[in-house]
Amino acid sequence: MNLIKKYFPELTETQVEQIAQLESLYGEWNQKVNVISRKDIQNLYEHHVLHSLGIAKVIRFTPGSKVMDLGTGGGFPGIPLAILMPDVEFHLVDSVGKKVKVAETVAKNIGLTNVTCSHCRAEDIKAEYDFIVSRAVMPFVDLMKCGRKNISKKQRNSLPNGFVVLKGGDLRAEMSSMKNLCTEWELSDWFTEDYFKEKKVVHVCVKN
Asked: In terms of pTM, does the model score above 0.90?
């Protein structure tokens, strides 16, 4: 928890309390549904919560923005971002029902009113969003095929509408076909922990 406050000292008391509750909630749920590696649950705040919040170092979505978390699993990056940005609507989507149940229950238990959850495939989502966020659930090309239709044409944020994705490693080959549409940031520029070496935030602009 101190790690989160180190990098986000502006958190309100409510936000600190919500983030603090995540440890016990995910610890309990992870005994039933493997949403986080059993070996990694002890690193919840560094590897999952702070990693998710890396997106907020690149963009703070304008109040009223609509964001879909595609392939959310147990709620990452959507739930940490929803805590940090309570005036933004987050729609958490995953094709695995039991993981969606975890995300939905966690969001409800910590009092998030800006989160909705859906058990479905991305292809079934018809609504439009300013951005789609994700944590490396699939290659960019496949991600864009799934979600491009859902990106709104109305612009209201500092970055053009599109995808904001957490990725790792060498992305040159994966990004080569869309290099003019991509901007990449190193999370190690903000977070000093070894875990964030080679971890990145990538924005892909969608031109509709």
From this structure: yes
